[in-house]
Fold each of these.
Amino acid sequence: MALIVHKYGGTSMGSTERIKNVARRVAKWHDAGHQIVVVPSAMSGETNRLIALAKEIMPQPDARELDMLASTGEQVSVALLSMALLSIGKKAVSYAGWQVPIKTDSAFTKARIQSIDDARVHKDLDAGKIVIITGFQGVDDGGNITTLGRGGSDTSAVAVAAALKAQECLIYTDVDGVYTTDPRVVSDARRLKTVTFEEMLEMASLGSKVLQIRSVEFAGNYKVPTRVLSSLTDPLMPLEEEANSGTLISFEEDTHMEQAVISGIAFSRDEAKITVMGVPDKPGIAYQILGPIADANVEVDMIIQNQSVEGKTDFTFTVPRGEYAKAMDVLNKTVKEHIGAASITGDTKVSKVSVVGVGMRSHVGIASQMFRTLSEEGINIQMISTSEIKISVLIDEKYMELAVRALHKAFDLEKA
Ligand code: ASP
Ligand code: MG
């Protein structure tokens, strides 16, 4: 017998028929002798609908009231799922976040979980009940309802699993796992059986479509084995098979020796590059350029500074394409004259491609293989950045898919 947390996304909860299917699947796990806690999202489209309603009344809705409203979607889900379980003869009980309680800070619409009281839940589980807890929401010290940000139910589920010391957190979703790269770009992309938390974080550009990235950080910090698997399968499929399906997000020490060196190719299409030319090469310059950018809340990713020539250097960095105009504005208005830069240029047609794998720590030659592959395709590398388990290059946007395909093949990722 194990304690297992199931999380179901909006699509899985999308209609009463689907909710009945979720109940069948959950009942199957309970019948097998496990203690089950379910954390569902709102029915698909519901959170959007609620937010749109708010905006009809107040274009920039008050954050506290918005959370009060948006949190109701999950309350509907838990009650319907509980009824679906009761009607097939299971014992079940549903709770809103504040009833558990799931305590958060007071940052409405993007609150962070601080603690979860496990007493009530354990009591119910020991009494043979299936416990259903709203995703996405919590309560602050003042008793106000908070929400965790869009996609936050993933984080709720992992946090509940951590608090209850669950054996595994199963995230049922409309994809069947995490892939070596986006299958829309590489048709023979392969589902990974396991991926480490660190790799999953580095593959955020791919993974974030599957899981709220904060939930992965949470799972890593609290060591919660988390599995992403399909909710579109037959709810009555054999439990053993289901329990081993999807992708397990695991810890490095648990992964096998024979694991491939590279786990995946991540990419981010919509990057922009900015170069500040002819700046004096002296202490404080990087800060003077990037400080105002950070103050404007623009996230900077790759950074390079050239060798200085006659006391002057060029400084290049990338920002998300959607923030390019804002960043340029800041630079032209406040930075350029202040530091005496010769000129500022930019390119909004660049993309980032990364190879990711914990195996890089113990293998050499990954970077050279990556660069050789790109050179064989005639792709020019504009910038390079590395971490212990990732090498990223910035290239012309029009070669992005070619690069992803070539690298996927070069690192044999289509092979199991
Ligand atoms: N219902 C919330 C949203 O749509 C939370 C979630 O689905 O994870 O963002
Ligand atoms: Mg989601």
Note: Residues 10, 41-42, 47, 73, 135-136, 150-154 surround aspartic acid (ligand 1) (CB under 6 Å).
Amino acid sequence: MQICRDLPDLRAAHARFRAADERVGLVPTMGALHEGHMALVRAARAGSDRVIATIFVNPSQFGEASDLAAYPRTESADIAMLEAAGVDAVLIPDASDIYPPGDETIVETTRLAGMLHGAVRPGHFRGVTTVVARLFNICQPDAAWFGEKDYQQLAVIRRMTRDLHFPVAIHGVPTVRAPDGLALSSRNARLTPEDRAAAPVLKRALDAGAAIALPGVAIADIAQTIRETVAAEPRARLEGLDIVNPGSFLPATGPLTQPIGIMLSARFGQGDSAVLLIDQTEITP
Ligand code: PAF
């Protein structure tokens, strides 16, 4: 695996792949890799001739400096995992490579970025689309793979890719879970043992909602069941629960007649060390 620490190195690797007429797949990451990322790499391997991964903790998608500073950084373990998984090249850029001094260009999905998680974390999705657009231009992939766990992020990236005519196929990969149901996330490493034991409540709450989601049931009742399940876990503080139409992301209301997406987030722990976890599911009645 070639380790590219600057853009010319990555471009040279990309040029070699293209010269051999190979299809290039991209897996953008912020490092602190786990089995969820490896599922993205496996899917990218199966769907392309060459795989480029990126490791870049993108400052523009973090609202609070403390969240950015606390983000886990495990570069040598990440490189070993990517190499073992058969990645061909990894780009590990400096922030100034991605955001050249004096840069002033942003990319934003104006509606989708401001709603739901975007309303709670202003600027977050603008940071994601800005960096992903730049990574697409740098890595020029034919296709890119993202986790379905970040449900709204995936929708935002699909919209941006379509709107800006990037010739990149976007693929979502199902959430990978620990045996107790907790969705794998780099943030899980920051949980105390007690909060780690409590965190599977997110999946239990989604399962409880899904269990009553028969055709015609009131969506408000599904929401209530999810809220009550989270409330029964004293270590979890519900932050957001959104039940949406998966196409428009507008709130789903009334009786259940169409597929719905459920986005759930909760905080564990206190103060600066509190960890925000998210989970999601889609239900087709
Ligand atoms: O999902 C992530 O890890 C990040 O949001 C992404 C897509 C790599 C952009 O920084």
Note: Residues 124-139 form the longest helix (16 residues).
